[in-house]
Write a structure and sequence with these properties.
7-stranded mixed β-sheet, single chain, Aspartate Aminotransferase, domain 1, 387 residues, alpha/beta, binds pyridoxal-5'-phosphate, globular, Aspartate Aminotransferase, domain 2
Length: 387
Amino acid sequence: MIPSILPTYNRAPMSFVAGEGAWLIEKDGRRFLDLGAGIAVNSLGHANPDLVAALTEQAGKLWHTSNLYEIPGQQELADRLVDATFADTVFFTNSGTEACELAVKMARKHWFEKGEDRFEIIAFTGSFHGRSAAGIAAAGSEKMTKGFGPLLPGFTHVAFGDHEGLRAALNDKTAAVIIEPIQGEGGIIPVPDQCLKGLRDACDAVGALLIFDEVQCGMGRTGKLFAHEWSGVTPDIMMVAKGIGGGFPLGAVLATEAAAVGMTAGSHGSTYGGNPLAMAVGNAVMKIVADDAFLAEVNRKSGAMRQGLEGLVANHPDVFEAVRGAGLMLGLKCKVPNTDVVKAGYDAQILTVPAGDNAIRILPPLNIPDEDISEALRRLDQVAASL
Ligand SMILES: *Cc1c(COP(=O)(O)O)cnc(C)c1O
């Protein structure tokens, strides 16, 4: 008999009843050190007092009005995002996959508005852009698309890192190229800065739009507000979600005025997107994260975590192969099956997240205290020893 919860997940047999900073408390009372942060979502830890205050204050006033009326929190958060980035305009969604839907629609409408027949979108193998029709068509992997055909047409896939293949695929019919500056689900695989620069130049040469999917790598995760800032290259359209809501469902599409030219009144919408509750939390997150001193701390903590992980790889060469990533978006490529490492972590009461390419992801809250980093490294050492 089918379970009452649609069985699309293989869940670990644990459930958490409370959280405090980087810690989760299981219903039996055990405390787990959370290096997954709800897959890079709880950017400021569990039960962060500033976010709890922002949400509960708004909850006592007004939850939802729909986008038929002005929502002051949207204006405030959109202004913050526009001030802090390449973007001129923002649309709020509830998730990353909805951000993908709009990014694709926006890119195609851009060309329609200009009277050009350009709809082809180039994406990369190993990528992840969400589970909607556009998201799985963009990622293109058999794991995500099999049985769901016919897929949304107009996507071309290039092998990650295949510069020749990209040059061959990109032409004056290309509407846009979509890429994660650091692949998350794919296994924490960064795109080198010079490749992002080359990609920007290649897009400019044929007039194609460039879409960055920063759903996982954005919002301070890499030690800059957005990961692409390390390269100095900017996109035309950017997808954001996960960390921006700190655990409240929130996403956004940021765009330049030129890229968004087709998105006129009535061309897109969302009942919930940017509702007052989400905006209260999103503004509270942005106030904390979009701050040079906060981001400097992320970089300092990243250095400590990374150094510890390098030591772990050196001490357990049969278990781990390499550390990669940036900021507090780190991956450990494993030699034993990555799911064995994640499971051994459960015994040591430490949570990590598996990813592609036999990696585990280390995505702690961005404000993880130094003593929790030390404790995480001790527990990961214990995990490796147990394997
Ligand atoms: C998680 C993720 C998405 C999808 O976000 P949802 O909120 O799960 O819909 C899209 N792109 C990337 C890079 C992601 O990590």
